[in-house]
């Protein structure tokens, strides 16, 4: 409870006196020009060598399972929603065979591709684009003829794995029948939607395959064989189809003992070597990333890259033409059996900005997301994506961070960009601390940007801030003391609720009812609250023909600031 009190104190004080937490329209970002900076963020917009590529849209795909509702749209920022459809073929945990596209009627096997077509049409008819179809769980008929055993014998699959957490996680009983089935499925898609349309869709074989036995209860080599068989079938119909697969991070370890009596670690490093040795195609390779807010090493971007990604992406056998991607992402408090408790506070906004910087620096092309909007309001990470969205297409610049943060452990950094065709500059700053989740005093910061302008050139700038007042749950927590008091002490908060958990996960029924009756008064959180335009003049630099844009400000704990600098 100590951490909870310290995290909520700034918001509670705000409702008592400073900017009103109950009046979001008044929450304009202000600039503290008198603050003495402890950290200076520098970027040189005059140097071509400091250009690091173009900012691309890596946050435009939503993950949806067989239970996904096309009516539930993600935050799109004016774009068309894109879906990655999981478990399209059937083989579901509830063993509902009406969803299966391959059936055994007691005498013969039959195809039932209309079920997949109905699911695809439900997305298309609700104005989604199909980005990717996942060929993961085999329909249940592909278990026909298997004998299951209680203990590993090296021959038969285990009885406890017959029905996995997510459904059928076993290889098909007949690889040739599977090949013919996939070939027929792709042919059906082409006949139904046209070759040009289907070639725009991607096909992924498997989901987090090395999460065993939840997604796969056989061996690594069995999956590699299954992947090759599947991709060969897809490309027999569409030679130019975009195909790939999805594993766990490179550091993944498992204690699961399979039917051979063995355990196996992360598959991806082995896959890239096997694929090169056997000339097996893949156009993309993906991992999952579910950082826990309770595990500091999972929020250390350098450590995450070196341990979870580099052993795959920097493997000398990695296909240089294949995209590296993240196909499941959520910043979480904890995992549940088939789900998670997500971080619902501004910590999530700041973390996504930090993740975005790594994505762009390491050329990670996609991060697929679960739901990031509800009732017209954006989740914390979607607010950061909103701020980043109009930087897509800009030239991305390297930057340096000089000085030490005022608060121990704070990472203050940002994404720096310039519009193509003019010299307008956008900056996205963040303040995150992986070791201490308390809201602490703001960081005094300074922007120092070298530009192709003479000394004294006038510019204007404005700032938008994403913080606790950008968050419906935190506004509610700040206004309702019982939401922060444990049930055992007469409050609404569950005893084991993490301070960053959402209302839905943190509060009991009475608390949730109070929220449902109250949250509409806070308005919808789906816009950036900009401060007023301010004026400035560039100062001298040590290079002739250039000058510096210098802006001093303060950056709160677990906040994001978006700067627009215009001439």
How much helicity do the residues have? Answer: 10-25%
**Total helix count?**
12
Gap between N and C termini: 49 Å
How many DSSP-defined strands? 25
Largest sheet: 7 strands, antiparallel
CATH level-3 fold name of the largest domain:
TIM Barrel
Report the CATH superfamily of the largest domain.
Answer: Glycosidases
Quaternary state of this entry equals single chain
Query: pLDDT below 50 for ≥5 consecutive residues: which ranges?
Result: 9-26
Radius of gyration: 26 Å
CATH architecture grouping of the largest domain = Alpha-Beta Barrel
For the residues shown, what is the average pLDDT? 94
What can you see in these coordinates?
By secondary structure, this protein is an alpha/beta fold. It has two domains: 224 residues, Glycosyl hydrolase domain, family 39 (Immunoglobulin-like, Sandwich); 330 residues, Alpha-Beta Barrel (TIM Barrel), CATH 3.20.20. Helix content is 25%, strand content 23%. The strands form six sheets. It has a seven-stranded antiparallel sheet. The longest helix has 19 residues. The chain is globular. About 3% of the residues have low confidence.
